[in-house]
């Protein structure tokens, strides 16, 4: 397959390289990724500033293109300018840290996969549930298994977008795969107020914690040791509410 | 009502001020908005940098808080730190330019309203379909009508999130209100390649055009002269695909 590989941790991130190495034997892998970390950028795109592209080597060998934009920018410019439209899969990751629950909305990793689907390609986002000391060995192995499975079973569906999260456990402790919905339960979050050495107040956004309890959600299944696979869509309309409000009479 | 007002064009944007003026007689309006334009940032939030907050005056009177973050950041910090949880509505706009179709995903304006709903408040995003020479007079008037309608009819539903787009037409040319779904048809987009005076290549992302034809979508209804109202949700799971793939056997 011809795979476009991107992420939101930047082109030099360990997770992206691990995924590249796991796939490059069997597939043609094209790397177009942010030049530096662009986490939590959601589905941001860059319209007010120009995009610049640099060719990046790994050792002495050409590795891919680094873009001064967001993950969604990378997918767009890859397909429209750098690689061309002959792509079979848009793959994003491996992200350092899980992308489950409400955080899916904030995730640059997931948005790159969604952008793939918007442009007509299957999208796949892979994240590892460990931020501090990640080891991508098993996650990259599983990703390659999944890519091969999809290639044989499902990749003729350009509308498929899968968000995959992998627990950070030894392979024999992983309980299996669960196909689950995205949790929409709120996070417990807080801002930490500090004062800088010049006497000015600033805030760190932090302290999030999930409140979800339903075992059939990505949040809980991942926490319990399952690999979670959540199919995503990007139609934000609420059809139920739409039929409810269609009778409103608003005079103006 | 107690209304939290934000936007993605920045606290000094004309559209936000017009909305403030249209509402401040009848409601308590709290302004917390980006210190400068943060368009197309989608649902980005700021985790790697601290947030700073400035008190902003209009004339000699306190007007609101300017934040060096995204629209979603503004909503979070407003409710968690600056204004407190006693809010009846999160209102975002009036945006300079429409937010319909796939662009809803990229919109900071819409994300602020969605963030309101995530935090448990009704959300309302208002955009005017004119970028070059907007006049917010009618849009602000209509927004105030809609806010009053919602206050009396619907605002006890904290899960409601409405994306409202207003055509840039004289009031008597507006054909009415349509309750429509978000278009998910692809955009035609392109990158313009240029060379800077130092010989370096850069790209402008531009040239988008809608391909949607269905009159029951936000894109087409707006173009035809209707005010469009689209109820939004933030559950990205695809339930249909979920039930299809639940039987997959992936060996690893």
Automatic annotation (TrEMBL), chains A, B:
Which residues bind a divalent metal cation per the record?
Answer: 8-9, 39, 95
What's the catalysed reaction? a ribonucleoside 5'-phosphate + H2O = a ribonucleoside + phosphate
Domain Survival protein SurE-like phosphatase/nucleotidase, residue spans: 3-184
- Lineage, top-rank taxon, reads Bacteria
Gene Ontology terms: cellular component:
cytoplasm
Report the locations given in the UniProt record.
Cytoplasm
What the record says about family reads: Belongs to the SurE nucleotidase family.
Kindly list the cofactors needed.
a divalent metal cation; Mg(2+)
User: In its keyword annotation, does this UniProt entry include Ligase?
Assistant: no
What Gene3D superfamilies has UniProt attached to this entry?
Survival protein SurE-like phosphatase/nucleotidase (3.40.1210.10)
Name the EC number(s).
Answer: 3.1.3.5
GO MF annotations for this entry? Answer: 5'-nucleotidase activity; metal ion binding; nucleotide binding
Q: How is the cofactor bound?
A: Binds 1 divalent metal cation per subunit.
What is the official name of this protein in its record?
A: 5'-nucleotidase SurE
- List the InterPro entries: SurE, SurE-like_Pase/nucleotidase, SurE-like_sf
What are the alphabetically sorted keywords of the record?
A: Cytoplasm, Hydrolase, Metal-binding, Nucleotide-binding
Chief location of this protein within or outside the cell: cytoplasm
Q: Tell me, what does this protein do in biology? A: Nucleotidase that shows phosphatase activity on nucleoside 5'-monophosphates.
